[in-house]
Design goal:
Length: 478
Amino acid sequence: MRRFLSFLALSLGVSVFVTSCKKPESTSSTSSSTSDRAVSSTSTDTGEIKLFEAVDERGAAVRGAAAARATAALRIIPGSQAEADAYYNEVRKALTNFPQATLQQSSIGDMLVYYGYPSILPKDVESLAPAVLMDFSQLRKSVTNIPDFEAAYKADPLKAGEIVSVRFFAPKIINVRDAQVDGVPVLGFGWRKIVRFRSRAASKARADGLDTFYLLFNFTTTDPKFPPPEAHAGQIQTILQPIYPSGGKHRDIYFLVYEGLGSDNPEKVGFFLKATFDLAGVVDDDKYFVPRSCGQCHGTTAADQKRGKVNYLDTDHWIDRTGDDFKKVQANDVIVDGPPAYATFRSLNTEIEAQNAAVVDGGPQFALLAARKWLELHKIGGADETRHVPPLRRGFFQTTGDPVWTDGASPDTELLPELNQYCFRCHSSVIYHVFEKKAVMDRKSSIVRKLNSGSMPQDRVLNDATKQRLIDHVNRLP
């Protein structure tokens, strides 16, 4: 039976890999008509937009106690063109002074103008190094349209902090199902570049109550290093964040997709991600539509994206992964621009922590707590300000007295690194976080059932020895 394939969260985004792999041997009904029926039922009846649903052996949706049984599989609900169109139309209503009549006809350039950044070309945003993008004196000499740029910013030069950018190794967007070839994953290694724009004081976005615009570029390489400047990213993901509190004027978060600059429709708004999440063939044409394919891994299944979060940037997890699945990547290459980039990660994670706190509104707190833990570990002046922190020092808790992962304790020392490798991909943003020990303990029986049934982890098939070792370690939890 088909299994839920994780929507690989952004830190801020998701996997954009397209594969030519064979379909899984077993099948269930995920045709367009089935998907549209699921969309209608899930959205209209419950006010939710879930990315997946539990199904029985016949592919029929199940809920309640039946959905928790070991025999229940998880099936992707990819959304639809109609759902994406309706979503973009609703978002456009909130962007009162946006320069295009519809989002569907707009481009990255239009959003940059809206946020107060005219004459900054998307191709320069994609190719220029973060140090250049964040330094006006360097940027004005490095753009490819210097006369237009100078004219646009002569009266109001860009200020420090208005543009923030980082580059990093991105394990979340790498295919881990298929066997590597000479240490290289099928479709290559994943890399990301984030560029965050704060709406400028005189911009129409600021007047409309919007604060930040994130662009997330997803790259792949066969070489275990960040790609050269001329390389194009695949589809580009975007988050728009309002000024909080929004007074009911805005949703907690907005999602968009843009076509890659090397595509047939460069930098235009797209309706779906062409992805596999990691198994191929689960959804017709591998199309996963906005907003359904964005919300769940950003902390919301609500139709209005209530409690939608920006995901924190976990430098430690990325470095961890060079020691298990991706040994060809050197740990020193994970943070592409080296130790000085930790200052930028700290700045972004501080903003992300504040965003999470602004929208949590009584909901699950694990995303917020995880962001705070990263900031605590990598605080300015601390011993680990610019260093990797191993997993067993990264556990956190919600309530004083809750158990915490402890180095040297059993099964903690064995289990947490396994959860970090096999489960973090989803369960750092979906339902719970594996670094919160109590959350894992509370789900002990469910985790064992789902491991035994093969429905987890969703992105790979564990061999019998690995599966049994993981089950044994989970069973040893109190």
